[in-house]
């Protein structure tokens, strides 16, 4: 694989995610890994960094890899035939669960000001139950659905 372009061409929107680079492994540190298709690497790199604040860490001829706040490695593979034209949240979507409502609100406020396809407007789910949480869903340019949420009781986030 050769590097197609540099990640510095796609600086993430500041203040949305903590993209601090991991410099040493600790005993209890994990990174979740998700791979999704994308139709165009430049469009994908720009969208995830500017709209969602993800940090591009590697761009190759066939994929772009992002750090989502240091806890999720998202790899968008170039696959023009696998694009979802009519995206739905179920049975497949991915995203982040924020542990702090302030961080969630900052992401929600930023994303809702962008020109993005919204699949679910910001709303409260399971109101007046221990599982109450705020959520919204957006669709990336390739038709992948992303959900962002934050539970009122962070210990119930799983």
List keywords for this structure.
4-stranded mixed β-sheet; 158 residues; globular; 2 helices; alpha/beta
For the CA atoms, what is the radius of gyration?
Answer: 16 Å
Low-confidence stretches: none
Tally of helical segments: 2
State the separation between the terminal residues, measured CA to CA.
37 Å
Structural class: alpha/beta
Biggest sheet layout? 4 strands, mixed
Mean pLDDT: 87
What percent strand? 25-35%
State the helical fraction: 10-25%
In summary, what is this structure?
By secondary structure, the protein is α/β, with parallel strands linked by helices. 14% of the residues lie in helices and 34% in strands. The longest helix is centred in the C-terminal third of the chain and has 12 residues.
